[in-house]
Specification:
Elements: H1 6-16, E1 24-26, E2 32-34, H2 45-58, H3 62-74
Length: 76
């Protein structure tokens, strides 16, 4: 009996996906998430440590802190 090839399954998955992407992606579980683009951000070590501590204090993530600061500064 032949084993299923993971690359073959991957190729099938790619062919099923649509090429066009919208600003919103839908997860398999029905959760709608915005499309995100990853980029490198260089911060001074003490600033990063302070951001991490603030995120812990607010029970959130550094990513959400940065995104909320960007929204507040540039989009309001």
């Amino acid at each position: 009996m032949a084993k299923t090839n993971k690359m073959g399954d991957f190729a099938k998955t790619i062919s099923k996906e649509s090429v066009l992407k919208s600003p919103v992606q839908e997860n398999i579980k029905g959760v709608v998430k915005p499309v995100e683009k990853t980029f490198l951000l260089s911060l001074q070590e003490h600033k990063l440590t302070a951001l991490k501590q603030k995120a812990l204090d607010q029970k959130t993530t550094v990513r959400s802190l940065i995104n909320s600061a960007i929204d507040e500064k540039f989009f309001k």
